Amino acid sequence: MARVTVETVDHVARLAHLSLTEEERETFARQLDQILAYAESIQELDTGDVPPMSHALAGGRFRADVPHEGLDREALLASAPDSAEGLFRVPRVIGG
Fold this sequence. Notes:
By secondary structure, the chain is mostly helical. The chain has helices at 6-15, 22-43, 73-78, and strands at residues 83-84, 87-88. A hairpin with a 2-residue loop joins β1 and β2.
């Protein structure tokens, strides 16, 4: 029995303000049902021997987080095409 029905897709589409064709509704219902089935199959895996991790990457790939002196503000602003009051000036791109 399908976990995701066309009615479920209709409900989600209404919440997202989407208009879907009949074909899209049926396709999404089938695809979402397959995704949930796959997620359920992953839940059945025995992970008892797998140590907990905070993220998927293995350790040792990051450099040490060592504080150091920052860049000289005046030298950076001197190389800028336009600056004012200690800031970079750029052309207006929004609402201009």
